[in-house]
Design a protein that fits this description.
With 294 residues, this protein is of the alpha/beta class. It has helices at 36-41, 71-85, 100-109, 128-139, 144-156, 162-176, 188-196, 199-204, 244-253, 274-288; strands spanning 17-20, 45-47, 93-98, 116-122, 232-237, 257-262. The protein is built from ten helices and six strands, in the order βαβαβαβαααααβαβα. The protein starts with 16 loop residues before the first strand and ends in a 6-residue tail after the last helix.
Length: 294
């Protein structure tokens, strides 16, 4: 959990930020730096683990269930959370979705939910097709020996082999999280969650971290993006696994949107050094505290 003092008090009557984690199945812990938005901008921040991972109910018996593990399952869960928090009325709420969570955030926002004030899509994915194409492009920029290892092991389905894991470490350090040393401590719980319980990730994405052959293999929210009617901030990194190919549709189709790309950054921008983290938190905080019309 976060290294944050716990104090009792009254939460001000301002919209909380509900944070949707990635993975799928990564859990919320790697996004805890966003809790500092409370100290800096007095924005209450809500974290939760999606069903099937972390501290939520694990469902190993549902591995491979293509009926259960669909978008509607996670949207219903988010709606239940918002209803239990009673945030739809009054000042409403904001949503930040990171990576896989960006898929859910965009799909949810396209329903024009009551109370949603502002949307942030952080290293999100507009469709599986554009994400896969982007992954193919960045793989070609890896050293040839790393590329060949990934190709050979992937073709054999050897995703747990030492060769594949070593090559994936090179991939992760280049595109997933460019922090040094790698991995940063904030990322360790996500790796733990996804290695100990693969039901969610392998059913939704499939066994390869570089492809999507599971229930979301044909998923897209691009035809729905024009329905998002709140101010939206989109950001990614220069070396992000959420390549510009899968980020651009957000910018092209959401009516009120701003897109920022951070130079020399990967998929986990907010974990890649104190300076970049501060820049992202300041950007998010200022966006969420803008007055309507700004």
């Amino acid at each position: 959990m976060a290294d944050t003092d716990i104090k009792e008090g009254t939460i001000p009557n301002s919209p909380p930020l509900v944070v949707i984690h990635g993975g799928p199945g990564a859990g919320h812990e790697y996004l805890l730096p966003f809790a500092h938005l409370w100290q800096a901008f007095r924005i209450p921040v809500v974290f939760y683990d999606q069903i099937g991972c972390g501290s939520s109910t694990l469902l190993p018996q549902t591995a491979g269930d293509e009926i259960l593990w669909q978008e509607r399952h996670f949207i219903a869960e988010l709606n239940n959370l918002l209803s239990s928090l009673h945030v739809r009325d009054g000042p409403g709420f904001h949503i930040l979705g990171h990576s896989w969570g960006g898929r859910l955030a965009a799909a949810f926002a396209a329903t024009r939910p009551q109370g949603l004030q502002r949307l942030i899509i952080a290293s999100g994915i507009a469709s599986t097709e554009t994400w896969v194409e982007g992954m193919k492009m960045i793989r070609k920029q890896l050293p040839l020996n790393v590329q060949s290892t990934l190709d050979e092991e992937e073709q054999m389905g050897s995703f747990d082999s030492p060769r594949f894991k070593e090559a994936m470490t090179d991939f992760y350090r280049t595109y997933f999280c460019r922090a040094e040393p790698f991995p940063p401590k904030e990322l360790l719980p996500a790796f733990k969650n996804m290695s100990e319980n693969r039901t969610t990730s392998e059913t939704i994405k499939g066994p390869s971290p570089l492809n999507c052959t599971g229930t979301f293999r044909n998923w897209t929210c691009i035809p729905r993006l024009h329905q998002i009617d709140v101010p939206t901030l989109v950001y990614n990194g220069e070396f992000d696994t959420s390549h510009d190919l899968t980020t651009a549709p957000f910018f092209e189709h959401i009516p009120r949107v701003r897109w920022i790309t951070f130079s020399n950054a990967g998929h986990m921008c907010h974990l890649e050094g104190a300076e970049l983290r501060e820049k992202i938190l300041r950007m998010v905080g200022e966006f969420l505290t803008q007055q309507q019309g700004e």
